[in-house]
Amino acid sequence: KAGVTQTPRYLIKTRGQQVTLSCSPISGHRSVSWYQQTPGQGLQFLFEYFSETQRNKGNFPGRFSGRQFSNSRSEMNVSTLELGDSALYLCASSLTGGNYGYTFGSGTRLTVV
Amino acid sequence: DAKTTQPPSMDCAEGRAANLPCNHSTISGNEYVYWYRQIHSQGPQYIIHGLKNNETNEMASLIITEDRKSSTLILPHATLRDTAVYYCIVRVPNTGNQFYFGTGTSLTVIP
């Protein structure tokens, strides 16, 4: 079956712009989590959605937001981009929230210039 | 904050067993031990998880000490494709809680 699909794969944006990233989970998975990965900070948790509701949120500013649709697809938005937002953004899905852990997508590489 | 401690790097000869240690001395009774790995520029890949019994699957074995304060991931016959960063994580399952990945162990399999 198809894995977790993230689009786009690569993205270049200018400081001050906003960006929307998309994640399609594995069919039947209802939980979607987002992580940011940078060389300096490693993998950091952004938020987790389950059945269209945000259940958990990491320690990121309000410029980072997300949502989940009724078909479990999720989007994350970053407004007023800063150079430090350049990172690999990873989406992961699971059936309910992770007994067997999450299946990660390949990520979206965002570069802010 | 990550609740685990791992060596930053390890080498292993191809074909030999790779034994990756992890300390989790503050693990609570309902937390499982999970192992993931990340090959360069890809998303992390689930390997195995366990509570207190040793576990084995097609990828690896997980040995958890009786006091649950440490564990070892064993790749029985390491190949070059096993070169990756390996993360040991403790977490309560089915909660939607985040995975604290920490810095992991960078394993290099040497030909």
Structural notes for this entry:
With 113 residues, chain A is mainly beta. In chain A, 0% of the residues lie in helices and 53% in strands. Chain A has strands at 5-7, 10-13, 19-24, 31-38, 42-50, 53-57, 64-68, 74-78, 87-94, 103-104, 108-112. In chain A, the strands form two sheets. In chain A, strands 2, 4, 5, 6, 9, 10 and 11 form a seven-stranded mixed beta sheet that branches. A four-stranded antiparallel beta sheet of chain A has the order 1-3-8-7, with no helix packed on it. Chain A is globular and about 35 Å long. The model of chain B has no long low-confidence stretch (mean pLDDT 91). The chains are: A mainly beta (113), B mainly beta (111).
- Provide the succession of SSEs of chain B: EEEEEEEEE
- Counting helices, strands and paired strands, the structural category of chain A is mainly beta
Largest sheet of chain B: 5 strands, mixed
Globally, the shape of chain A reads: globular
Mean pLDDT of chain B: 91
Kindly report how far apart the N and C termini of chain B lie: 35 Å
Q: Helical stretch count of chain B?
A: 0
Strand percent estimate of chain A: over 45%
In short:
With 113 residues, chain A is mostly beta strands. Chain A has no helices and 11 strands.
Quick tags:
heterodimer, A: 113 residues, mainly beta, four-stranded antiparallel β-sheet, 11 strands, 53% strand, B: 111 residues, 9 strands, globular
